[in-house]
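subagent[fold] <- orchestrator: predict structure for attached chain, return tokens only, no commentary.
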Amino acid sequence: MKYSIKEVSEKFKLSAHTLRFYEKEGVLPTIQRDESGRRVYSDKDLGLIQIICCMRITGMSLEYIKKYVRLCILGDNTVPERHQMILSQKEIIEDRIKEYQDLLNVVNWKLQYYDNRMHENDPTAIN
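subagent[fold] -> orchestrator:
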């Protein structure tokens, strides 16, 4: 299937400017154009954009992402290196999840404290 820049922008909540920037910077180097010169994104492009968004959200630099994209273009002989890059990405995400779980535990502990105080009907307990 083929998608316009507007459709891709809406799907991934990226501005058209960002998509054009990624193309210019070599992060999305294989975007095709139609006969009128408009960008046309394929399902394969959308899969790559999904990975790029994931990498950006977890703080990966554009240079690192460009390296990943270059390896994708080079083909199957780069699968072990790409696997390692995605494995590193997984570890970053797992670390973030643990950090957020720890934060959630603190918030839950404090909520439990307030719940207990409210049930005691002690209006002077403010912490």
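orchestrator: received. Logging for downstream: The chain has five helices and three strands. The chain has a mean pLDDT of 92.
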